Amino acid sequence: MRKNVLMILSLVLVFTLAACGSSKNGETASKEAVQGSGKKVEVTMWRTIGSPEEDKYFNELVDSFNKSQEKLVIKQTTFPGDTYHDQVHAAGLSKGLPDLLYLDGTEMSYMAYQGFLAPLDTYLPDDLKKDLLPSLIKQGTYSDGKLYLLGQFDSGLSFWANKKMLEQAKVRIPKGIDDAWSKTEFDDALAKLKAIPEIKFPLDLKINYGAGYWIYSYLPWVAGFGGNYMNADTKLSEGTLNGPQTVEAFQYLRTLIDKGYVNPTQTNDDDFFGKKVSALSLVGHWMEPTHKKELGDDAILVPFPNFGKGVFTGIGSLGWTITASAKEKGVDQQAWEVLSHFMSPENIKNVSAANGAVPARISVLNEIPDYQEGGRLYLYREQLEKGNGIVRPVTPAFSVFQKEIGQAAMDIVNGADVKGMLDKAAKAIDQSINDAGYNNK
Questions:
Q1: Cα 302 vs. chain centroid, distance in angstroms?
Q2: What pLDDT digit, counting tens, does each position of 320-366 carry?
Q3: Domain 2-155+316-390's class?
Q4: What's the rounded mean pLDDT across residues 11-31?
């Protein structure tokens, strides 16, 4: 945390100066639009650079908006993803934030806690709110009960399964979340799959993704056992992260590894779709194009098992916020006009086509065959629309949760004591929260 604070403070001077001039980090607004705007109101916007397809979409979106009307002009600045949020924090401290800000959902809490964001509740019309996936409202709502972030899409997370392998092993294929495997069925399925010679490790948990993945990917498992990472009331982790249900969930992980169902030293990304030594893969929507290309119709979605307390999925996306700076400058209504345009059905459909994520609006989902009942991606919709999504810890200390949980998980994968590692993580997280004074405000 000390290292992060020093980094942020070192950036404050940079953004104090930058606030008085133009950023050199990838401005993509049309110079002609800005210079020839006349009485146009300028709405400044920052975002992180995404995939080439997503980046192309947003650049075209900004250009088309600027050319479509005579009242507003978006001045867009883009930043590399690996430094973006540190730069955003520094700009907040130096009062150099733009009007519109693109944030990971996990960053919303810190920004709201610091007072850097304006609540969106007064701008959001009821018809749009009712058309949004409930998971996005859950992700964008801070502990004060106010909505600060709107995502154009959400993630899809479950198991990708090789249908041919499941059929070969005579494993029942669940039809949806109400038909999920029980824990006993899941254990039996893994044993049957392990017995097939070409299947070396039945379950690919994406160990190769590293420590940062666990706070997202394993949370649905933990919830299925009745556990969680953070206490909803205290906003601390003691007694929850290291509570009996969460400990049981991570002990189950060790059991899967000990039985040879999971490769604890995995470094490859293609065990499921390339080498085909795994029959199930715990990964999200971003792998759908690859799975479809490599496996065709044999690539199917399967829900998480019901470990006793229900079937869950992860929630996670980037989204748009209006800053307190915009409100102070009196351009918050104009910023909302831009954000409202971004949330239109057409633009949500287009950004989801660019990045493969689940469209935010139910009306858009209704237009896409893959998201209809019986469609190959319907499970993603079903999980999020029915409220089975579990949001990652909504706390300004999220980065500490992610680091400590990830490290504990990787240590457990490598054979460390489960309870000991979770005790250690809970202590470190709560110490950090108390030192920062997050629960005092």
A1: 20
A2: 999 999 999 999 999 999 999 999 999 999 999 999 999 999 999 99
A3: alpha beta
A4: 40
Buried/exposed code over 65-76 (b: 16+ C-beta within 10 A; e: otherwise): bbeeeeebbbbb
**Nearest of 405, 419, 439 to residue 233 by alpha carbon:** 439
In the 3-class helix/strand/coil scheme, how is the chain assigned residue by residue? CHHHHHHHHHHHHHHHHHCCCCCCCCECCCHHHHHCCCCCEEEEEEEECCCHHHHHHHHHHHHHHHHHCCCEEEEEEEECCCCHHHHHHHHHHCCCCCCEEEEEHHHHHHHHHCCCEECCCCCCCHHHHHHECHHHHHHHECCCCCECCECCEECCEEEEEEHHHHHHCCCCCCCCHHHCCEHHHHHHHHHHHHCCCCCCCCEECCHHHCHHHHHHHCHHHHHHCCCCCCCCCCCCCCCCCCCHHHHHHHHHHHHHHHCCCCCCCCCCCCCCCCCCCCCEEEEEHHHHHHHHHHHHHHEEEECCCECCCCCCEECCCEEEEEEHHHHHHCCHHHHHHHHHHHCCHHHHHHHHHHHCCEECEHHHHCCCHHHCCCCCCHHHHHHHHCCCEECCCCCCCHHHHHHHHHHHHHHHHCCCCHHHHHHHHHHHHHHHHHHHCHHHC
Q: What is the per-residue pLDDT for 10?
A: 43
From-to residues of CATH 3.40.190.10 in the chain: 2-155+316-390, 158-312+397-440
- Kindly calculate the radius of gyration of the chain based on its CA atoms and give it in whole angstroms: 22
Residue 398 binned pLDDT confidence (cut-offs 50, 70, 90): very high
28 and 64 Cβ atoms separated by less than 8 Å: no
Cα 240 to Cα 425: distance, rounded to the nearest angstrom: 11
Kindly report the average pLDDT of the chain as a whole number: 92
Burial class (CB in 10 A: 0-12, 13-18, 19+), 78: buried
Please name the CATH architecture into which domain 158-312+397-440 falls.
3-Layer(aba) Sandwich (3.40)
